Amino acid sequence: MGVIKSDFLVIGSGVAGLTFALKAADHGKVHLITKDKASEGNTRYAQGGVAAVTSCSDHVELHKEDTMIAGAGLCHEDAVEVLVKEGPERIRELIELGTQFSKNDDGSYSLAKEGGHSRHRILHAADLTGAEIERALLARALAHPNIEIFEEHIGVDLITEHHALGNLTADFNICFGAYVLNKKTGKVLAFQSDFTLLASGGASRVYLHTTNPHVATGDGLAMAYRAGVRIANMEFVQFHPTSLYDPEGETFLISEALRGHGGILRNELSERFMEKYDQRLELAPRDVVARSIDSEMKRLGSKHVYLDMTHLPDTAERFPNIFRHCQEALKIDITKEWIPVVPAAHYMCGGVMTNLSGLTSMQNLYATGEVAQTGVHGANRLASNSLLEALVFSHNAFKKIIQKKRRDFSKVVIPEWNEKGLENKEEWLLVRHNMAQLRKTMWDYVGIVRSKEQLNRAYRRMRLLYEEVEDYYKRTKVSGELIELRNLTAIAYMIVISAQRRHESRGLHYMTDYPEKKEEFLKDTIIH
Ligand SMILES: Cc1cc2nc3c(=O)[nH]c(=O)nc-3n(C[C@H](O)[C@H](O)[C@H](O)COP(=O)(O)OP(=O)(O)OC[C@H]3O[C@@H](n4cnc5c(N)ncnc54)[C@H](O)[C@@H]3O)c2cc1C
What we know:
Methane Monooxygenase Hydroxylase, Chain G, domain 1
């Protein structure tokens, strides 16, 4: 088989992976693996935009304050400062790389306002911001002679000193790259590298209803967990209040920007209900809006609520993508009819713990973007801060890595992947059934509103699933589907045990048994 060597191994081709790869490529060979087409990932679906202070009526202190308020006491202040102070420079770079944000008639950038932001500061490209950023970055990466992109290659496990052979007596807790499955050939390859960046995105596919595309199965997080890397705050899952209610199709996000634009939420009785829950009405933070919708749906026994845009003049022009999707998927004209919406799992605030340079608790292993827990989101992410986080911390990881003196690992021998194993199709159907069960259990018991009893139930089911899947995995040849199921099971398990440990309600974690915040829980939930 041989080992595929590079200076930098990047796992994931969203905003985090591409930002890092483009910078690192001027200093060495980059191998970028990505499990689907390179353009696929959460980045591509981001609609609302990217938050940064770019106007003189705004200030980084205000952006910091808004971020910290949303984070409900758990934001790491130093990380938030890095985010808001360095953000504007990263935006300038993004524009230089070819990203085209929407502008006003006078040529200035059009800045939107979203829930929890005290100023208009969201740069956007109509309602296709993520797609525009991904387009610009990917075009540059494809053109760079030092970047080799391996599509349809899925990371299986990190390579650590436990796998490596050779003179490693003085080394422990160190990453040498990753075992990677080529989905087309079915072969597992060893990618060895001086530095590895996990940029594999989120894990919201662990829930039945999610705004995330199919690649968001938390692979990087699960790989890190299995390698013994520190993980934090997995209980903080952000549910987007408004995804399109489409019983037949895939979930589609109805961006927060529509509420920022003046959209009104109405229940089945046509009532504007947010005034009952929060004086900020439709622009209250996401967790408040999601819980309010959940409460109205439960109170009235309805499957969804509505977002009313019919009183606004320019909805079709401002949100062409959403306008078109609603017309095609549900045959509704959103300028004349209300949009049926439900909450859906959207963003993982927790992740692989890193310092301000993206370094994890394992040597030579970095993590940026949604897979990481840098401390900027705390118990709840402020809208449009995640694209910014990926840009800022990918840059800082790059800066740190190129300053580091490289060590000589030429004596390290990476063994081949052991492919011996059987495939039992009949049993595989049962395992597939486990996937559906897992996502439904997470939705029913570990969702927007949780209780001790629900979490205990979920724990019992997850424990069993985890054991079954691990056992099956050890006896079976790897495939993309099996890797994802194994990873989602680990993610579900981590979310449940983290939620069980937090005996309070804070940010996105709401427990009926403990409805208040508690001083003693003013800390991260860390899993080793
Ligand atoms: C519908 C939607 C709307 C959003 N809107 C906004 C917004 O307006 N503003 C904002 O700031 N944020 C928004 N977000 C969140 C934001 O898009 C993401 O947090 C961000 O794009 C994450 O970037 P990333 O590079 O970390 O991950 P991603 O863009 O998800 O990229 C991850 C990459 O890793 C690859 N990958 C995963 N596992 C493996 C593996 N095992 N092996 C190889 N490759 C792998 C994937 O294929 C993908 O290429 C939105 C998210 C969604 C889903």
